[in-house]
Write a structure and sequence with these properties.
It comes from Ascaris lumbricoides. The chain has about 70 residues and is mainly alpha-helical. The chain has helices at about 15-20, 35-65; strands at about 5, 10.
Length: about 70
């Protein structure tokens, strides 16, 4: 994905490209950049929440084992 990936006439900033690659998110041509960023934000929050639940479960298992 190039740094000048475009959605309409808008180019995607480098920081968003890096986040999109990390969270396997593809910018499409059908939405505005703002809507795409909102969708990426939702995907990132879901991934972070999943990781936090996994870590919380691990900590609870450790507490119950000792």
């Amino acid at each position: 994905m190039s740094l000048s990936s475009a959605t309409g006439n808008e180019s995607v900033p480098e920081e968003l490209v890096l986040l999109a690659e990390k969270y396997t998110f593809n910018f499409g041509d059908h939405k505005s950049l703002q809507k795409e960023v909102i969708d990426l934000k939702k995907k990132i929050r879901a991934a972070v929440n999943k990781q936090m639940r996994i870590k919380q479960g691990y900590v609870q298992m450790q507490v119950h084992l000792y």
